[in-house]
Amino acid sequence: MSKGVLVDITRCVGCGSCEVACKMWNNLQYKQSVQDQGSGLDAENWTVVNRVETEKDNEPVWRFVKYQCLHCEEPACVSACFSKAIRKTKDGPVVYDVNLCVGCRYCMLVCPFNVPKYEWDKTFPQVRKCQMCADRVHAGESPACVGVCPAGALTYGERNNLLAMAKEKINGDSRYIKHVYGEKEAGGTSWLYISDIPFETLGFRTNITTTPLPHYTESILGLTPAVGLGWGALLTGMYVYNRRRNEINREEKKPGKK
Amino acid sequence: MAVSNRWRFTMTPTRYVLMVLGLVGVLLMVYRLVFGLGSSTNLNDEWPWGLWIGFDVLTGVALAGGGYSTALLVHIMGIKKFSPIARSAMLTSLIGYLLVMAGLFMDIGRWFNFWRPFVSWGYHSVLFEVFWCVSLYTMIQLLEFGEVATEKVQKRWHGFFKKIMPVLLIIGVLLPTLHQSSLGSLYVMEVGKLYPLWWSMLLPIFFLMSSFFVGPAMVTVETMLGARAHGHRPDLGVLQSLIKVSGYMMLVYLALKVGDLVYRGATGLVFTGNMEGNMFLLEMLIGVIIPIIICFTPKLRNSVGGLVTFGVLVVAGVIINRMNVVFTGMADFMGGAYFPSVIEWLVSIGLLAIGVLGYLFIVENFNVLPKHKHEHSHAPTPNVVVKGKKAVKYSA
C-alpha cells in the first residue's frame, strides 16, 4: 500500500531540523540566505519551513508550514513526462530518473503545487524536488525529515491510516479547520496537512481541481487513435475520389485538345 | 518544367544583414549549448518556458500551418485554382518546421538526450504526441520536397518521389492535424493556472482551427512580399478565394470562442479592463473580427491593401494568441518576472534570418514559385515555352 506523511501544522515549532535532515540525507548544498528566510523551494532546497504571521481570535500568531513535493496519487508531472523520467513508485514517492530526462521542463509547468525546480546554473541541469527518500521508504523506514522532527508534527505511515487519523483529530478538536489538505486536492496526495488556520492564509493553493490532472489530457489523448484513423481514411477517400474525377475530366477533354 | 542547372544566389544589402544576423544566431546557439540555459536565458523556476517555446515552437508551428492547409486544399480536395501557391506554401512550412526543431533543440536542458522519447515511451504525455508528430512530419515534408529537389539534383530519383507523393501527402495532412491540436492540449493540464479567458477543454480545437486559418494569411503575406521582391504581379484572384477559406473558418472559430466563454461563464472577464481582458480583446479584434470584416467586404477583399492587411492581422492575431496563452494567461499564477534575454532574442532572430535566406535560396534555384510574364531574363532551357498564368503544371 501507498505510504504518506501527515503534517500537523499546529505542532510545528519551526526549528528547521527537517530541512537539515533533508540536506544531509540527499547531499544538498546549504545556502545560509535561503535557510534563514525559508523563502521557497529551489534546486538545493527540497523542503522548506515557511513562517507565516497571521491572526487567530484577534491575537497575532505565527505558524510554520513545512512545504515539499506532495507526491500526488496521480501526479501531473508523471503524466506530462514524455520520456518516463518521472514515475510514482508503488510505495508512494514520486521519483526522478536523470538518465531519461530530456530537460523539457513540462513537469515544472504542469505541477499544481509548483514544486519541481531546475538547476539553472548547470550546463546539463536536472529537475530537482523531494523524492520522499524513496530508498528509505522502500526499505521500510520513514523519510529523513520525519525521523528527526522533535515536535511530533510529522507522522509517517499508510496513507489510508493517516487520513483516518487526520479526520479523527480534526473532528475531535474544535481548534482544527475541518479540512484535510491533500485528501482530494489534485485527486489526492501522499502528503496530508491539518491546521487550525485556514489553508489559504498559510500560502496553500486552495482552488485546485479535485479531478486528478492526468484525466484532463487522457480524455483528449484517448481520442487520438480514432481521430487519426477516421481522418486518415477520409483524407485517403477524398484524394482517391478527386484523382479519379480529374482523370475522367482529362479523358473527356482529350479529343478537343488534340 | 525544367530547371536551370546552375546555382545562383544574388547577394543584396538585405541578404548581407540577414547573413550577419544568422551568423550571430549560430554563434550564440553554440554558446547556449556549451554554457547551459541558465547563463544564456532569463528563464527561472517561476518561468520555465519562455520565448523559445512560446514563439519559436508554439507560434512557429502554427505559422507553418500553411503547408498542410494548402496541401489539403490543393492535393487532397483537388481545388486546382490554388495550385500556383502550393509549392511555396509547403516550402515555407518545411522551413518553418526545421526552425521549430532548432528552437526546440535550443530549449531542452539535456540536449544530448533529445532522442529519449523515441525509445522511452511516455505515451500518456501530450508532449509525446507533439514530439513524435513534429519529428515525423518534418521528415515527411523533407521527402515531399524531394519531388521538387529531384527536378534539379539526383534527377533519376524523381520518378520515385512522384510515385510516393500521394502517401506522403495524406500522412502530411494527418500528422499536423494531430499535433497542431496537441499543442493546445499541452495547456489543458494548466487547469486553474491558465487564465479562464484562454483555458478551455476546447484548447486543442482552437489551436487546430487557428493554425488552419492562419495558413492562407501567411501565404498571402508571403506572396505579396515575394511579388514585391521579384517585381511581378501577384495573382490576386487566387488569394481572394484562398482567404475566403480562412474567413469561413474564422467565423466558426469566433462562434465557438464566444459559445465556449458563455458556457464556462467567463464572458464577464472580457470587459473587466485588466491586462488579461484587454489582451484577449486585442487578440480577438485584431486577429479575428477585423479580418472577417475585410474578408467578407468585397471592396476590401479585392484590393491589394485589403489583402495585405488581412494577412498581417491574422498572423499578428495568432502570434498574440499564442503569447497570451504562454505568458499573459500564466503570469498571474506564476508570479516572478520574465523577459527574454538578449541572447534569447538574437537566437530567435538569427533562426528567422536563416529561414528567410534558405527560402530565398531555394526559390531562386528550384521550381517553387509560379512563373509569370515578368520572368527573369536569364535563359531557361530552350524546350520551355511558358506564357500565361496556368503555365506551371503540378503533378500528384
From TrEMBL, chain A:
Transmembrane segments: 220-241
Gene Ontology terms for molecular function: 4 iron, 4 sulfur cluster binding; metal ion binding
GO cellular component: cell envelope
Domain of life assignment: Bacteria
Primary location class: other
Pfam families, per database record: Fer4_11
Keyword Transferase included in the entry's annotation: no
Family matches, as SUPFAM superfamilies: 4Fe-4S ferredoxins (SSF54862)
4Fe-4S ferredoxin-type domain: residues covered: 3-33, 92-121
Protein name: Fe-S-cluster-containing hydrogenase subunit
Species per Swiss-Prot/TrEMBL record: Desulfoscipio gibsoniae DSM 7213
Taxonomic lineage of the native organism: Bacteria, Bacillati, Bacillota, Clostridia, Eubacteriales
Automatic annotation (TrEMBL), chain B:
Keywords for this protein: Cell membrane, Membrane, Transmembrane, Transmembrane helix
Annotated Gene Ontology cellular component terms: plasma membrane
Record bears the keyword Iron-sulfur: no
Membrane topology: Multi-pass membrane protein
InterPro entries for the chain: FDH_cytochrome_b556_subunit (IPR051817), NrfD-like (IPR005614)
Primary localisation category: membrane
Subcellular location: Cell membrane
Keyword Cell membrane applies: yes
GO biological process: anaerobic respiration
Pfam families: NrfD
Spans through the membrane: 16-37, 49-77, 89-109, 121-140, 160-178, 198-221, 242-259, 279-297, 304-323, 343-363
Family per record: Belongs to the NrfD family.
Entry protein name: Polysulfide reductase
